Each structure stands twice: as structure tokens, then as C-alpha cells.
UniProtKB/TrEMBL annotation:
GO molecular function: GTP binding; metal ion binding; nucleotidyltransferase activity
Name of the protein in its database record: Molybdenum cofactor guanylyltransferase
Species, as recorded: Paenibacillus mangrovi
Gene3D superfamilies registered for this protein in UniProt: Spore Coat Polysaccharide Biosynthesis Protein SpsA, Chain A
Top-level taxon of origin: Bacteria
Length: 197
């Protein structure tokens, strides 16, 4: 993209503001995992830095899990401009339904949505018990999210279940911006949404 995607404006808000607002209405605390503290100081949220810098999204999730004050965290990538509180609420609800096994142990370590059969691990929930496997992945340089998830007990949320529970189009919700062309498409989608098209 060539610039900080989180600080790009979409409609009346920057992407980071949309994500924080969606999170704040549902979760207990909002943390920002970033190695660029200066960019986010004005937001007044706790900023946690990577212990494994330069190792992609896994290192950000690791930092957030290490700093977590609750057993579960919900993560949202900074380049997803259509994150909504409805989705965060549904993830939270699914976590509550999934978190305890009959014996009182942890049945699931992650709750991850699917969209067109693809996992969406950057808008998902993770239990702190997933930390050892995550740390091992980072130490060994295995940085693919799917490799880490393969080591966990994961509850996957189908696209159909997501739509039924929230009414949201998963293709819209999980859209992420990787290029100026993507950003222009997001601006057009937002304009159409605001115009009711």
C-alpha cells in the first residue's frame, strides 16, 4: 500500500477507528499490537510491541495474547475496513458457547470464521492456551497461520452460520486492503453503502 493502512479514511472514520469502535462496544479492553507506537499514541489505548519483530501477523497475535487480561482475545487486522460490532458480538457469543468442556477444561483454543472455504484467522478469537504453540511456531520460523491453527483445537464458523446469525455478507466483512486498487474499491463500497445502493 505504501502507507499505514490503519490510518486510511473510509467514509467518516479511519479504519483503526472503525475497528476500535466495533471492538469497544463488545469487549472489555482494546489493545493495539504495533511496533510503531507513535502512530497510535493519540488513541489512548495500550500498545503492545512484538517480541518477535518482523515475523508477520503471528507476532502481533503473540504480543496481544501475552498482554491479555482475559482468557480469550479477539483479533482484527488493521486492513479490514468493514469490521462490525455484530461480528465481534457473534465471535464473543461463540466463544462463550465453546470455551468449556464437560470436565471443565478448554474444549477449543480458537474460534475462526470461514469465507468461501478459506479460514479468516485475522478476524477471530484465540485462547491464551494457544500461546505455547504460537511461540514454538515463531521460534522455528513457521509463520503460516494455518500451520499454527493445525496445532490447536479450532472451532470453525461456517459462512452460512455467520450470515444466518448476523445477516452480514462474509465477502464484505472480511475484505482486506492490500493495494491502492483495493483501497479505491473500499471507498466505492462505502459510498454505495452510505447511499443505500
Amino acid at each position: 500500500m505504501g502507507k499505514n493502512k490503519a490510518l486510511l479514511a473510509v467514509g467518516r472514520e479511519r479504519v483503526i477507528d472503525t475497528i476500535m469502535n466495533a471492538m469497544s462496544s463488545v469487549v472489555q479492553d482494546v489493545l493495539i499490537a504495533s511496533n510503531d507506537r507513535e502512530a497510535y499514541l493519540e488513541l489512548g489505548k495500550e500498545i503492545v510491541e512484538d517480541r518477535f519483530p518482523g515475523q508477520g501477523p503471528l507476532s502481533g497475535i503473540h504480543a496481544a495474547l501475552q498482554a491479555a487480561k482475559t482468557p480469550w482475545i479477539i483479533v482484527a487486522a488493521c486492513d479490514m475496513p468493514f469490521v462490525s460490532s455484530d461480528l465481534i458480538h457473534y465471535l464473543t457469543k461463540t466463544v462463550h458457547e465453546s470455551q468449556t468442556a464437560p470436565a471443565g477444561g478448554i474444549e477449543y483454543q480458537a474460534v475462526v470464521p470461514l469465507e468461501e472455504g478459506r479460514v479468516q484467522p485475522l478476524l477471530a478469537a484465540y485462547h491464551v492456551s494457544s500461546l505455547p504453540a504460537l511461540e514454538e511456531s515463531l521460534r522455528s520460523g513457521k509463520l503460516r497461520m494455518t500451520d499454527w491453527l493445525a496445532q490447536l483445537q479450532v472451532r470453525y464458523i461456517s459462512e452460512e452460520a455467520l450470515f444466518k446469525e448476523t445477516g452480514m455478507n462474509p465477502g464484505h466483512v472480511f475484505f482486506n486492503m492490500n493495494s491502492p486498487e483495493d483501497y479505491n474499491l473500499v471507498l466505492k463500497k462505502q459510498e454505495d453503502q452510505e447511499a443505500g445502493r
